[in-house]
Design goal:
Helix content is 34%, strand content 17%. The radius of gyration is 23 Å and the shape is elongated. It has two domains: 4-167, Phosphoglycerate kinase, N-terminal domain (Rossmann fold, 3-Layer(aba) Sandwich); 179-365, Phosphoglycerate kinase, N-terminal domain (Rossmann fold, 3-Layer(aba) Sandwich), CATH 3.40.50.1260. It has helices at 33-37, 39-47, 73-83, 122-129, 148-156, 164-177, 193-203, 215-223, 238-245, 288-296, 316-327, 337-346, 360-366, 372-379; strands at residues 13-17, 24-25, 28-29, 51-55, 87-90, 105-108, 134-137, 160-162, 184-189, 209-213, 250-251, 255-259, 268-271, 280-284, 299-303, 331-334, 354-355.
């Protein structure tokens, strides 16, 4: 897979697929993280005297219809501010002379306003792929979707490559999959074992230790012979959990925070052998073994919280986990919306070595699946 530095882009017209799917309120950007993540690629292109057309989706509009609340106009205005130069919003996707006039940086209106995006239309993909001299894919967060702007445009383009964000994502994530330094740790939280089974299966032979969190913990506790009261449990996953436990790599909590309601009625911290029938496990305490493993691990992969951290009553486990990861000397990789939210809530994002911008893409990559966009980029240069 070639990146921007592997080809000569000087003085060329670049079509760049980015992920600027950001929260917007009152036509103002609420969290610009994803936009700022695109800047290294944009600035490098401008340094090379390129003209840039940015493509992104925003929200989930009805394909083929224009909805003001999903317009990328606030994004183009924000980009104009941080780049300190004009940025226009373009709506005519068939304009083959889109680069001939106007500012150096343009934003195409929400790609999901155009028919054929979600169905990976060959016609739309061709239009996008041939608009410029080079099609640059820099949207890791959408790389698991086989759509017109994330797959077919790459295939149809005259030349394509990865942007810096995608390149950095793939390199960081491969670090945890290909000959990871030892000892290493995977922290996997979530409501259901079934939703993370692919991740657990792909990592169980590569990692030295696994800490589970959320509803996944409940299933593993029950599989190990403990009563879990009225906690969320996947009984259909108990045999699989037992098999994974036999590896000896899973670290389970010895104390948990329970309540009879999600609002915190009769909340208490208890030993895992003391849970009553009407109690739910909604958080867990880190054991000394867990703290020691986090401290000594040279690589930490984190996906998912330990408890219902959005409620302060059940946030201690995830807060303590965040703190210990931030103090670790190992290389830490975090991914997933809830994980990044926890990081932003409890610690400084800079205290984590690498935060992935992908949600579903992060999970599928770590499960060992081939992502369509990356496959397309790699196929362009096969002999």
């Amino acid at each position: 897979m070639k990146s921007l530095v592997d080809i000569d882009i000087s003085n060329k017209n670049l079509v760049v697929r980015v992920d600027m799917n950001v929260p917007i309120g009152d036509k103002k950007i609420q969290d610009p993280t994803r936009i700022k993540a695109c800047l290294p690629t944009i600035n490098y292109a401008l340094e090379k005297n390129c003209k840039v057309l940015l493509i992104s989706h925003l929200g989930r509009p009805t394909e083929g219809s224009t909805e003001d609340k999903y317009s990328l106009e606030p994004v183009s205005e924000y980009l104009s501010e941080i780049l300190d130069e004009p940025v226009s919003l373009e709506k005519d996707i068939s304009n083959t002379e889109i680069f001939k006039s106007g500012p150096r940086v343009k934003v195409l209106e929400n790609i999901r306003f155009y028919k054929g995006e979600k169905t990976n239309s060959s016609e739309l993909g061709k239009n996008l792929g041939l608009l410029g001299d080079v099609y640059v894919f820099d949207a890791f967060g959408t790389s698991h979707r086989k759509q017109a702007s994330t797959y077919e445009a790459i295939i149809q383009s005259k030349e394509s490559c990865a942007g810096f964000l995608l390149k950095n994502e793939v390199e960081a994530l491969n670090k945890s999959l290909q000959n990871p330094p030892k000892p290493n740790l995977a922290i996997i939280g979530g409501a259901k074992v079934s939703s993370k089974l692919g991740l657990i299966n792909n990592l169980k032979d590569k990692t030295d230790f696994i800490i589970v969190g959320g509803g996944i913990t409940n299933t593993f506790l029950k599989a190990s012979g403990h009563e879990v009261g009225s906690s969320l449990v996947e009984d259909s996953m108990l045999d699989i959990a037992k098999e994974i436990l036999e590896s000896g790599k899973v670290l389970l909590p010895s104390r948990v925070i329970v309540s009879s309601t999600f609002e915190g009625s009769n909340i208490a911290e208890k030993n895992i052998d003391e849970i009553s029938a009407n109690e739910m496990i909604l958080d867990q305490a880190l054991t000394e073994d867990m703290k020691e493993v986090i401290k000594k691990s040279k690589l930490i992969l984190w996906n998912g919280p330990l408890g219902v951290f959005e409620n302060e009553l059940f946030s201690k486990g995830t807060r303590d986990l965040s703190k210990h990861i931030s103090e670790s000397q190992g290389f830490s990789i975090a991914g997933g919306g809830e994980t990044l939210s926890a990081i932003n809530t409890f610690i400084n994002k800079d205290d984590v070595s690498y935060c992935s911008t992908g949600g579903g893409a992060f999970l599928e990559f770590m499960e060992g699946k081939k992502l369509p966009s990356i496959e397309a980029l790699e196929s362009k240069y096969l002999d």
